[in-house]
Each structure stands twice: as C-alpha cells, then as structure tokens.
Design goal:
The structure is a single chain. With 276 residues, this protein is of the alpha+beta class. The protein folds into 2 domains: 7-160, Immunoglobulin-like, CATH 2.60.40; 205-272, Winged helix-like DNA-binding domain superfamily/Winged helix DNA-binding domain (Arc Repressor Mutant, subunit A, Orthogonal Bundle). It has helices at residues 7-19, 166-172, 174-196, 205-213, 221-228, 232-244, 263-272; strands at residues 28-32, 38-45, 50-54, 60-66, 74-77, 80-84, 90-97, 101-104, 107-112, 120-125, 129-133, 139-142, 146-151, 155-160, 219-220, 248-253, 256-261. Strands 4-7-2-1-10-13-12 form a 7-stranded mixed sheet. The N and C termini lie far apart (48 Å).
C-alpha cells in the first residue's frame, strides 16, 4: 500500500471494512488523473420511465446510453440529468469534468459534496500518495495503475504525486518545446499536407484498426471494445465519428449496436492499402 496512508489509518479501514455491509455495486466511480481531469461513470437501474440522476461536477463530453450502448434522450437540469429511459433496463452515464479537483502547491484536492450516493469509488490514477482524508474509507484497493478508495460522500481527499508523471512535466514546459520544434513541425506539416491532398478522411491508427476489424463482417460494439482493448466511451465516440464520415454503418437493436463496414469504408481501406 502507498506510503501516504498511515498504518493506523489502514488498520481503521480494515476494521470498518469488516463491520460494514455494502449492498450491491457502488453507485458511481470517479477516475482522477494527474492533470486534474476526472472521468465520472454512473450506473443506475431503471425503475420508472423518467429517471433523474444527480451529477458529480460539471459534465463535458457527456454520454448517456442504455445497457446495450444505445443512446438515450436526456436533458440537463442544474446538477441533475433527466433521462428518458422508457425502453431501457439500465442507464450508464459517463462524462469528463475538471470541477471536482484543485491544486495548491504540490497538493491536489478532490472534493465531492453530493449526498445522493450511498458510496462512491475514487480511483486515483498513477498511484499518488494520499496525505489527507476527511472521512475514513469503507475500503481501499490497489489496482495495477491506480489506488481505489470507496467512501461515503461528502468527502475530501488530498493527495500528492511524489514523482510527477512525465507528461505533466512536459505540459509545464510545452511553450519551450513548441519553440524548439516549430521549424521541424512546419516541414512535417507540409509533407503531410502534400500526401493527404485530395483525401478528405483524416484517420488515425485507431480509426484504421477499427475499420480493419470490420473487414470480415459486422460486429457488436462490445466485441470491438474487447478486441481492441478500448474503454466503452472511447469506442462509442470513435464509431460515431466513423459513422458520421460514412465509413461504417451502425444498426441499433435492442440487444446492442451492430457495426459494419460501408462500401465507402472498404474503398478508403483499399486506397490506404490496409484492407484484406
């Protein structure tokens, strides 16, 4: 366990874990990244045709789908989201937010004031040292790339990255890096522009991998996610973008979304020499 957690705190957590009965899965999960951004995932069962779900922080890149990854209609009302879930059994809400964290010196703080959830799991990505807790966690678990604390809200967690990730240090020096590489970058952009002239499709390697995975036939969104090891939200946004370009066709069914390569998508892969 991380050195930022004292042995006395760990002992207390162990005792609380033994005597606390937690019924069912945690209502919400917050993944906290070293740059202060958080990914919030909320799963809610459907008991009424209209479901009101409290939000944690101010959402951006909001995704609201049912158990089959089909998009659901919703409206935002203050710090709540109202979902039309008449044909759904479960609602999955995912979004990004930067409104839950702030940094003072080297110490980051995560503040969750919502009281509508019985428990919230916080995954501190990158294994920071926890230096302050306003409330004793119900459980603590160490994953391969994160430290997870399950806590009853409201709560505050203070944490420090002993060795800031390389990408964060790079962001601090980004203006200097840009000045150094601008001449080389200009040459690269000219070369790329000349190669892509006449090609209106800007595809990165992951787009091409998704298209290639569909060459042999249609697949469900969950199959694509598993084959390419993609998070659910990332896979859905990628497929929607490819659908918007006309490169894939999406058939939305009650059992899930089926994705197939369009004729245009096959032609693009053939032009790139990527198709089978």
């Amino acid at each position: 366990m991380r050195r930022g957690l004292s042995s006395s705190l760990l002992a207390t957590v162990f005792i609380v874990t033994l005597i606390t009965a937690v019924g069912g899965p945690t209502n919400a999960v917050i993944e906290v990244y070293p740059d202060g951004w958080c990914t919030v995932s909320i799963r809610a069962p459907v008991q009424d045709p209209i479901v009101e779900i409290p939000l944690l922080g101010q959402p951006t890149l909001l995704s609201v789908v049912d158990e089959g990854d089909l998009p659901l209609n919703y409206t935002l009302n203050g710090d709540k989201i109202i979902v039309d879930a008449e044909v759904a059994d479960e609602i999955n809400v995912t979004y990004e937010t930067q409104s839950l964290t702030y940094k003072r010196g080297l110490v980051w703080s995560l503040n969750v004031s919502a009281t509508s959830y019985s428990l919230i799991s916080v995954r501190l990505m990158g294994h920071p040292d926890v230096v302050g807790l306003s409330k004793t966690p119900v459980s603590i678990r160490e994953g391969p790339s994160y430290l997870e604390l399950t806590i009853e809200p409201p709560f505050t967690i203070e944490y420090v990255y002993a060795n800031p990730p390389r990408e964060d240090r790079g962001r601090d020096n980004l203006p200097y890096y840009l000045l150094a590489i601008l001449p080389a970058l200009a040459v690269v952009l000219i070369l790329l522009n000349s190669r892509s002239r006449g090609n209106k499709f800007e595809l990165d390697s992951m787009d091409v991998r998704i298209l290639n995975s569909l060459v042999e036939g249609e697949k469900s969104l969950s199959t694509i996610r598993e084959e390419l090891s993609l998070p659910k939200t990332t896979a859905w946004r990628r497929v929607r973008r490819l659908e918007g370009k006309g490169l894939v066709e999406v058939e939305r069914t009650r059992s899930g979304s089926l994705i197939r390569l369009s004729k245009l998508g096959r032609d693009v892969l053939k032009d790139r020499g990527s198709g089978h």
